Amino acid sequence: MKEVLSFLLPWEFSPAAFALCVGAVAWYAHRIATLPAAQRPGFGRRASFVAGWAAIYFVMQTHFDYLSQHMFFIHRIQHLALHHLGPFLVALALPLPMPAPLRGLARMKIARLAWRALQNWAVAPILFVGLIYLWLTPSIHFDAMLSAPLYRLMNWSMLLDGLLFWGLMLDPRPRRDGALIGFGLRIWLVLLAIPPQIAIGSYIALSQHDLFDVYAVCGRAWGIAAMDDQAIGGIVTWIPAAMMHVVAALILISRWMRFDQGSTPRRAWSAS
Amino acid sequence: MVRFLRLVLIFFLAACTHADGGWKAKDISGLMPDLELSMTEAPARPVTAADYRGKIALVFFGYTSCPDVCPTTLVRLAQALRAMPDHGAGARVLFVTVDPSRDTPERLARYVSAFGDGVVGLRGTPEAIDRLTRRYRVSYSLGQPDAKGDYEVSHSSGVFVFDAQGRARLLVRPDDRPADIAADLERLERG
């Protein structure tokens, strides 16, 4: 029991990660408590939101982070949670209430320009796939695992991009109700992001060389053959990631069909 | 924040151009913090990083019962020191044990003396060891003891090289050759 509790303590405490995860859930709980019962989102959406932030918190702010720094396949699970699973679950709870500081930011011209530059059909999928390739470039990966600031930059870039990408893709609204991209194109985009991830995941899993020797140089968390670690890590990059995109496409298809049958959109949170 | 952005910029420029500065070992300038430790040099001399200022320090983590990586690495480092023009007078290999319960001060001192004058053994409390391994983002773990009570220790294989001012400069990998290591150390000594 004591071991479990000490495992749940942060390895490297990050005030920003702590504030983001705890703050998001606290804000959400507060907003739900102030809504009339009839307007509250269903249990599934609430559970999905909390589970998403819990997954992000777990991989960033427990000793799971220590294991991620010293075992390639655990690092891949960490990125799966930061870039896919966590943001995916959070985005399933859309639409979400917007805290006042974010609303203020959304009114600033520069923020709106940046938003439009990132959140479109051309840039978003390239950024999503590009970040995976960037941080898995062996020389860059090596440095990121040595340097504490680069390591934080790596994980934060994955998390923020995951939130942007899945927030854009899993918007429950059709285009006519305000989504930035229509359902049809979004289905194409989530599916088109699959082959590059299969390519890099299978390349790593099937490679006969130790591509990421930083784990040998700095020591693995426990005794495991380097090639086994790398093969499992490649499979994590390849299969669960691709599956999540298929799930996203199925969700989008079912939402699209529902709207075509004249269903009403999810009620947005009141601006108050 | 400015320092951080500068680091990021340098890092991506270096990544794009593959500039390695001509070092044989991996250049880690700016990636890792300066040398800082508080331990005992076997058999019984309390030391901090300041005691090694003015010399190049090669920090390597291991344990004396290690069957392969530690002795071969220490032999290679000792060869590299001997190959230098000053026969390694300006450098010290700091062999930090991660298994202090078996590596008594005497045992550690006897072990490192087999590799020559340039190699010293460092031993610390478990907290001091953990501070150092955490600082340089390396890991070690003690395996399950067998019937005789022997156990293996999995640990890092890289050697962190600090210049005379205690700044992290190079990371020597297990497959770097002694002649290449000597050439890098010589260049580091020249400044």
Word description of this protein:
The complex is a heterodimer of chains A (272) and B (191). Chain A has 272 residues and is mainly alpha-helical. Chain A contains 14 helices and no strands. Chain A has helices at residues 2-8, 15-34, 43-60, 64-69, 72-92, 100-107, 109-118, 123-136, 138-146, 148-169, 183-192, 194-206, 214-218, 226-260. Chain A is globular. The N and C termini of chain A lie far apart (44 Å). Chain B is of the alpha+beta class. Chain B is 33% helix and 22% strand. Chain B has helices at residues 2-17, 69-83, 105-113, 126-135, 178-190, and strands at residues 26-27, 38-41, 45-48, 56-62, 91-97, 119-123, 141-142, 153-154, 159-162, 168-172. Chain B has an 8-stranded mixed beta sheet with strand order 1-10-9-4-5-6-2-3, sandwiched between helices. The chains are: A mainly alpha (272), B alpha+beta (191). Chain A binds chain B through residues 66, 69-70, 137, 139-140, 142-143, 145-150, 153, 213, 216-223, and chain B through 4, 7-8, 11, 15, 18, 26, 28, 30-32, 61, 136-141, 143, 152, 154-158, 171, 173-174.
